[in-house]
What does this fold into?
Amino acid sequence: MLLYLASTSPARLATLRAAGIEPVVVPSEVDEDAAVAAAELERGHLLDPADMVLLLARAKAEAVVAPGMDGLVLGGDSAFVLDGVTYGKPHEPHVARERWLAQRGRTGELFSGHWLMRVTDGTIVDAVGEIAVATVTFADDITDAELDAYIDSGEPLEVAGAFTIDSLGGPFITRIDGDPSTVIGVSLPTVRRLAGKLGAFWPDLWNRTEGS
It folds into this structure.
């Protein structure tokens, strides 16, 4: 069974590959800010982080459905929450630095939304969604020079919360409570559970051969 990944995130792709799955990557190109603004206008209130990541995960998954598509379609989105404030991707170096100065030595929550659909010949047959949450604690002895070097690498600019655990940012994280793959942006236990709800046998998704 094919898994279509509505994301261009290298971290999500690498995580699925390590779990034996070679997904078909289909960029969603969803305008995230516009989607959130429209939902907030319709509902009459600001979205909490859980609602926001699930909304965007669903929007991304639905946006990539195309004629002839058969299999499972996965959309995902993440947000980091510290002191009740929700943070997405910083995009700019000075924003990333401000966030790291605020979160150094602190603990926050990473929300990861998942939307999984079963699609037959381009038609959505069924869909399920779920949110995974993990707490992340940052080292308190990170020097300003280390932060500058990390930000200069460009890695934290396009990831929720301005950090990773599976690449250069890993040494700056001292503790994770919850499924570690949640922090990467695709909780494998969550996706397996959702696949089961859609009647898919998880091992049927294993399509990577040795050495590929």
Q: What stands out?
A: The longest helix spans residues 49-63. The chain is about 35% helix and 25% strand.
